[in-house]
Amino acid sequence: MAFDNIQFIAFDLDGTLLDSVPDLADAADKTMRHLGREGVTVEQVTTWIGNGADILIGRSLSRSIDIDPDLDPELHKQARQLFDHYYELGGHVKSALYADVKTTLAAFHQAGMPMAIVTNKPSQFVPHLLEEHGISEYFVDVIGGDTFPLKKPDPYALHWLMEKHNIAANEMLMVGDSRNDILAAKAATCHSLGLTYGYNYGQPIADSEPDVVCDHFKQLADVVKLGD
User: Fold this and answer.
1) Is 14 annotated as a binding residue?
2) How many CB atoms lie within 10 A of CB 81?
3) Do 219 and 116 share a structural domain?
4) By CB atoms within 10 Å of each CB, which of 114, 145, 159, 196 scores lowest?
5) Per the domain annotation, does 141 fall within a domain?
């Protein structure tokens, strides 16, 4: 399937553009050990991310994708502060762009396609990551998980982008690796592309029924047809 009317592309970050789970897992593990609790693994964190840092920490404390309803709010707050500290302290040195991300984004940017980041990651970390990996210049807007009152799977950010850039829903494409990305796109009635290589709670992205499923980021160039 290919689209010939896309005027704007919104991208998730973690698991879509950036393999960031090693740094996230490292910070979560150090947080748990700091609190005298059992550490967490990369494999565990891979299935827990996607809903923002608060949820990740809640799942780490609960050691489950389902957060313990009896979890102490003060402990949760302390753990989140520790996580932010360790994540920033780590310098994101273990994170890396997925194959062909930079060259594909550069080609779309060169062709004049406006693009934005819509991530549930805390916004304080996002600009530095984009700059560190040399892709910040490609995005006209960068929306983090705390930029607006609502985050994915709510469509708030996508609606905001449509209104700001005067884009109709059928002219926007949301690209992501998680059901939250696909649910947000469906709620905004825009097109969606799901990537199979990211983090989706251990479930195939195809189960969320995006319009298109791709195994490699570079396939985006085959899906979105740019004007002459």
Assistant:
1) yes
2) 12
3) yes
4) 196
5) yes
Domain count, the chain: 2
Tell me the torsion sign for CA atoms 181, 7, 226, 138: negative
Would the annotation count 29 as a binding residue?
A: no
Q: Give the start-end residues of each E strand in 16-152.
A: 18-19, 96-97, 115-118, 141-143
Greater pLDDT, 28 or 228: 28
Q: Could you write out the DSSP letters of every residue in 188-200?
A: HT-EEEEETTS-S
Q: Say whether 177 counts as a known binding-site residue.
A: yes
- In the residue annotation, 84 being an active-site residue is answered as no
Query: Which residue bears the tokens 């796109």?
Result: 185
Q: How far is CA 93 from CA 30, 45, 85, 87, 202, in A?
A: 16, 17, 15, 10, 25
Burial class for 215, CB neighbours closer than 10 Å (0-12, 13-18, 19+): exposed
pTM of the model: 0.90
Express each pLDDT in 103-125 by its tens digit.
Answer: 999 999 999 999 999 999 999 99
List the catalytic residue out of 4, 12, 54, 181.
12
Tokens of 191: 């097109």
Q: Measure the CA–CA gap between 138 and 133, rounded to whole angstroms.
A: 12
Beta carbons of 157 and 184 less than 8 angstroms apart? yes
Of 74, 89, 104, which marks where a domain is finished?
89
